[in-house]
Amino acid sequence: MEIQTKKGRWLTNLGLSLMAVIWLFPIFVMFKESLRVNGFSNYIATLQNPNFPQFVFNSFIVAFFMILISISFLAFAAFGFSKLEFAGKRLLFNLVLAGLMLPVASLIVPLFFTLRNLDGLNSYWGLIGAEVAFFLPFGLMLIKSYFDELPNELMEAAHIDGATTFQIFYKIMMPLAKPALATATIYAFLNSWNEYLMVLTFMTDPAYQTVTMAPTFFTEALGGDPGKLYASLVLISLPTMVFYIFFQRFLQKGMTSGAVK
Amino acid sequence: MQHATELPEEQPKLSAVPPQRPDSTKKKAQLKKNLIGWAFVAPTVLFVIAFIYYGIFYNAYHSLFSWDGISFEKTYIGFENFGRMFSDPEFYNALKNTGIFTVLTVTIQAGLGLVLAYLLHTKGVGRTFFKSVFFFPVVLSPVVLGAAFSQIFDFQFGYINEFLRMVGLGAFEQNWLGDQDVALYAIILINIFQWTGSSMIMYYMAMLAIEREVFEAANIDGAGFWRTLWSVVFPNLKGTTFTLTILGVIGGLKTFDIVWISTQGGPGNSTEVISTYLFRKSMLHQEVGYASAVAIILLIIALSITYFQTRVQKKMD
């Protein structure tokens, strides 16, 4: 849309700029506080605390396996729900999708006590499993809506040529679905990296905690050294910032493709 | 040759009473189809059942017991947990705060998101940059935002109070996160800051789908900039507004991180929401049976909203 008057254009730009300043302010605050008193040596001190690299390592391990498991499950399921016909399809799809609406807090009791009985607390696999379960509904919606857009003719042609369902899935549909799988991967990473409640509940031992526990840990361990606390916050935000800079188009598209339907 | 191979397949159609064999192959084919389909969706479905649906049954079962989560002994008490919950002022307080939180975030986020999307929709410099800036907080961890805002809201040295004192409005300074009457609204502000970008993107994408002619017609009719937004653009975005409302309500019920990081539900219980109440009862107070009952109510609320959503969406389509 074009604004007709010069004054109108000027006001629009001014309004947007003011809002942008407000929106960047908390991030500016974080950077500024991270340099408090000791400047950049806050960062060095944070990185040298042996617990910090451990948090980062744990986060990467959990995120890696969470992505690996959920994306491979979802590739099959999204194809199945979108392109195959079988008994109970609608019911099963709605069963998974209903999970989208459930707050993690409402299932924290069963998750905690079940994992405790299975030695899943303070272990990677317990957290990974729970994160996968809560990501599957959103991921399914995202990837399935992409499969729905792909024409069925391709499949039918391959079927006539004698290809099995698995061959059609693997050789024809997977390469086409790459953008959707990439979008889901980015969302999965962000979900896992930023997960807070499950880590807080399942991981009482700092050796297994992820980056979202770093601030609490530093506040308690370093007894109120805000410079280092904020340096750790900047450091744990770096991967998400890098992801954002490179993949924000995917993120914005994913936001609408999943939700509008 | 060709003719001969085709014949047997044609035959069933011709005969009045279909012979047994083709019928059973049909059944077999159907079974094979089902098996293939189930195999593809099984990992996802079974995983969700194991973690989520098993959890729902676990909650339903334990809501009928008095259990501290530590001892082996669980005492069956029927619906007593539910009775206690519905006469517990703390439970209603958490519900009320969740309600305030949800209504304010949903409306303000949608309103602000709509205006930002509309401004970005105009032609001009730096639109992509602005869009990136407003959407950015969506990817940040609530841990990070909570810490940044605790600095901004700090009573003594916080940026907001310092600013107010500087411009001579020191009388309006607040203990933003430490005052019972203010803290909930301060947290709502943080939440709005984080999620307005997603409302903006959804409105923006939907605006791109509105035909150019609609804007031009409004212009010819002499509708001004804001008038066009209110009476032409907004009515065209009903679907998006509805989606955002549902997502916002669900998001409100899910809210835990930002509250726990900023205030842990305090001061007093002025920022306690349903999720933090549930966490406190189960993990900190060891009232596991009671917490299961609260979880069941939360699940019922979430699922009825979903049911309502699908009904309305069917009508809209």
TrEMBL record, chain A:
The chain crosses the membrane at residues 12-31, 55-79, 91-113, 125-147, 168-190, 229-247. GO terms for biological process: transmembrane transport. GO terms for cellular component: plasma membrane. It comes from Exiguobacterium chiriqhucha RW-2. Its main location: membrane. This is ABC transporter permease. SUPFAM superfamilies: MetI-like. Belongs to the binding-protein-dependent transport system permease family. Residues 56-247 form the ABC transmembrane type-1 domain. Keywords: Cell membrane, Membrane, Transmembrane, Transmembrane helix, Transport. It is a multi-pass membrane protein. It is found in: Cell membrane.
